[in-house]
User: What shape does this take?
Amino acid sequence: MVQVKWRIDTHEKIFKAQISKIKNIKRGGDYQMNKNYLVWGVVLLVVVLAGYYMMKGYSKPTEQTQNQTVTTETTSPTTVATTSGEVMTKATVDYTDSGFTPKSITVKVGTTVTWTNKASDKMWVASAPHPTHTDLPGFDQLGSVAKDGTYSYTFKKVGNWKYHNHLDPKDYGIVVVQ
Assistant: This one.
């Protein structure tokens, strides 16, 4: 009889121990699941914030002024007479692996500026700011050109018109229209 009671007590203790383990696992499992949601929430927040700041920083071309010389050049536009007697002027800017040359030009209203790609990468000239190109509507190449390709735009409004290479916004320049 003692041996039977001992077996019942032993089985009861084992059963209670198993139940206790199950309860602890259940509590720990709930804690673990909540902890997983928290960890994934923090990871998602970090990714979203990093993406936001990268895009924010990417959307503004950085102007490096330290140890940099910016050349302002008043171009001597080429004057071309058309058959209707209308006088047109032209100016050129080269895009090289170092950026736009010259970085700044001054022209008169009605001047057509032609950008020539002499770089190893593609060029896409567009009005500032990047990426919206809204300072001078219409001043946007709307596509890229490879080496030796060109883009021309006729400036019809007086102003200081900043532009950049949409594909590499750190390369920028300005056309001053008088």
Residues 72-177 form a domain with the Immunoglobulin-like fold (CATH 2.60.40.420). The longest strand covers residues 87-96. The radius of gyration is 34 Å.
